[in-house]
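A further point concerns the way the authors explain their paired sequence and structure data. Each protein is reduced to its one-letter sequence and a matching series of backbone shape codes. An entry of this sort, consisting of the sequence and the corresponding backbone structure tokens, reads as follows:
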Amino acid sequence: MKQPFRVIIVDDHDHAREAIREIVGSYENFVIVGEATNGEEAIFLTEELMPDIILMDINMPHMDGLSATKIIKTKYPYIKVIIVTVSDEVTNLFEAIKKGAQGYLLKNINPTAWYEYLQAIADDEIPMSEELAFKLLQEFTSQKEKQMTKNPLSKREQEVLELVAKGHTNKQISVDLSISEHTVKNHLKNIMHKLHLENRVQITRYAYEKGWVE
């Protein structure tokens, strides 16, 4: 049997941690291995427990979640960090992405939606919602000028990138392009290697920023 994904919860509010604990604790393939109340504790626990996923609040005393995320991702890039917050401010969203976060969950969304999202994160298939893709588009088309950079991607990689930027999953991309999911994953690895990126959110951000996707 496959080992469950190990999760750390980071939030300075007892009720928030309890609510997250109840949601995530009900999933068989996820196990909560630790809880922290601020960014400093999160870094310490990460080094001690080496989790697979960290559910990170933003606003906390001593050290906020974004600062902790940057430190953790610098030291342990393979650990997935999901920002969990009540705020959907674009500023927070983009700061989280810049610090290396793989995902962004709102505390007030339906708890039943958490499992699908967490599983996608755990499977290295970070879901990109239409709302997030729209915010990304708004953010980068509002810039005065787009920096045009020579595209190092192959034609097929460009096709995959465009579908990722539209929020398609690996399965959807494999159907659209008539290729296997394994091939899609390989193309994504090549894209991230060529562009020096880490995840789908950063791929989408980069694509719009460089003007490769309209």
